[in-house]
Amino acid sequence: MYKVFFKDRTVFFSDNFPETFRNNSGLFYKYESAENLKEIVTAFFHLGKIDSLFIFHHDLQFLQKEFSSVFKTIRAAGGLVRNSKGEFLVIRRNGIWDLPKGKTEKGETSSEAAVREVSEECGIESPEIKCFLLKTFHTYLLDGKAILKETDWFEMTIDDDVVTTPQEIEGITEVRWIAIENAGMIKENTYPSILEVLTEAKIL
Predict the structure, then answer these.
(1) What 3-state DSSP class applies to 83?
(2) Residues 6 or more apart in contact with residue 15 via CB below 8 angstroms
(3) In contact, 132 and 140? CB cutoff 8 Å
(4) β-pairing, 52-56 with 72-82?
């Protein structure tokens, strides 16, 4: 099921209403028009006590395009970096555990952007991409405008003796290597999209 994160809440897209309705709770909406969809999404932004919005249509690709049209889309890329000890790299940004990521610049591929962001935010050079992991989507309001951020995530490797330096201008105060058995320490103070990346990488 396709999903979009909004802070600690989630928007789901489904083509199977009976099963989804039977197994979940939240706000349910059958797609009718782009105008109505925009109203539902706007309402969900302000319904803080409702954790999940389920939107239904038989054509999920069409539904995704219609949903995206409600927002200004920003593309980004980031990296899950490992070393030979099996540890992975996390950053503390604005007091919250995160993975290095950032906006894709004009003319960049997503893989180039991911390498650049890891290098800049962690103060390291030439992380090597191992594979593409997944895309995550999350929404937020910026100056009253609805933003949809689409992030491409890559698994990377790096030399063990590298020295890391947090990019303080971006609100990063710490760069830390975490052993997989200690991964639970960040679960209570991170974003749902980051948990999605760690799950896909079989860390959680």
Answers:
(1) coil
(2) 56, 57, 58, 59, 60
(3) no
(4) unpaired
- Measure the CA–CA gap between 31 and 36, rounded to whole angstroms: 8
- Identify the pLDDT of residue 1: 60
User: What does the alpha-carbon distance between residue 117 and residue 111 come to, in Å, rounded to a whole number?
Assistant: 10
CB atoms within 10 A of CB 166: 19
Residues, the chain: 204
Question: What does the pLDDT average to over 85-95?
Answer: 94
pLDDT band at 21 (very low <50, low <70, confident <90, very high): very high
Q: Does the reported pTM lie above 0.85?
A: yes
Tally of CB atoms within 10 A around 73: 11
Domains with residue ranges and CATH for the chain: 2-68 (no CATH), 72-200 (3.90.79.10)
